[in-house]
Amino acid sequence: MRRLNVAVLDEELPFPLTSGKRIRTYNLLARLAGRHRVTILCHLNPDRDEAVDAESAVRALGVETVVVGRAVPSKYGPGFYARLAGNLLSPLPYSVSTHASPALTDAVRAHAADHPVDVWHCEWTPYAQVLRDALGDRLPGSRWSVMAHNVESLIWRRYTEAADNSLKRWYIRQQLRKFERFERWAYSAATAAVAVSREDAALMRRDFGATRVSVVDNGVDVNHFHPQRDVDRDPACMLFMGSFDWRPNQDAAVQLLTDLLPRVRQQVPHATAFLVGRRPPDWLRARVRATPGAELHADVPDVRPYLARCGFLIVPLRIGGGSRLKILEALAAGTPVVSTRVGAEGLDLTPNRHLLVANTQDELVRAAVGAIHQPEELTDMAEAGRQRVLARYSWDLLAERLNDVWNSVARVPVLATA
Q1: Cα–Cα distances in Å, from 405 out to 147, 277, 371?
Q2: Are 336 and 296 members of one domain?
Q3: What's this model's pTM, rounded to 2 decimal places?
């Protein structure tokens, strides 16, 4: 197969590897940059200190970069709420309008004028709008794919169900309707849509009219994550991992701190919870400090020591979509997993064989207490899960699938445009 010119549109450079999205993007591009000429066009990483290292790391893969001097606006502070209010006047969802910047649009337009592009790849659904703004009438005559890390409408539907007041629920419904309209266009207009699970692919076909959908699952670096047999686990230590600037993880952390951990400690007084992740807001830091048995470990360089030490990974998600890389990383490291149904969805894992799955908060509490009292049984389950992950979720296998998608997109005949 010929070497393609692939232009990837994304939020930021995928480094350091501190979020599921960055981990996925980095690992797939690392394996495909040797086969194709890949260029990332993106915004500046919000942390200026990491931006320089990110550019060096991505270029070391053989990926070219075009980084515009504008970071995506913060999700905190008065300016954030002002932008939320202003979005009421926009036909686009907030996540789309704040990512579709004129600076990146101009960079994409200039790249299209100066370089032959075989495949445009939108690495997150909102960046389909950047491509539409940049190419305009030429978009139907272009070959492009869109990567759905989540079906965003599903997340917003779950936000609606979890909203705790009527005003918030009303605003979320506005976002839900906008995302449903936007995703219906993006998934059906793209030459190929890419989902991270069979469940998401089925949803994209059924509810959004997508007819060209491929599945490229989330994965794990099985050489990086492996059991550390020389470290003793603390059966009573629950580990929560996630990016704390993502609202579903914030919601899950609140559930852990206000309900799950206190109820577990009523039965196991020495139980603890480690919350490990990047960019925790100040309010979450304060809530952790106020919760007995909870510890926050923010922006750690390596999560593997925590996976080795904890008794099990706890995934109390009630809002989400796609699939959880953290579960794959835990199982690859031999760490048992206790999860909600939402947390475990999208993964080809069998409840009670590869991990424990709870349908209600009461079941999650019972599962966590049982895991503390029966660590040997949970260890056997984790080993079965590790074998499943090794056979099914290696990045090498998944990169082959994305390579197939790009090659199929490049071969699709398109109508000439005026």
Answers
A1: 11, 32, 41
A2: yes
A3: 0.88
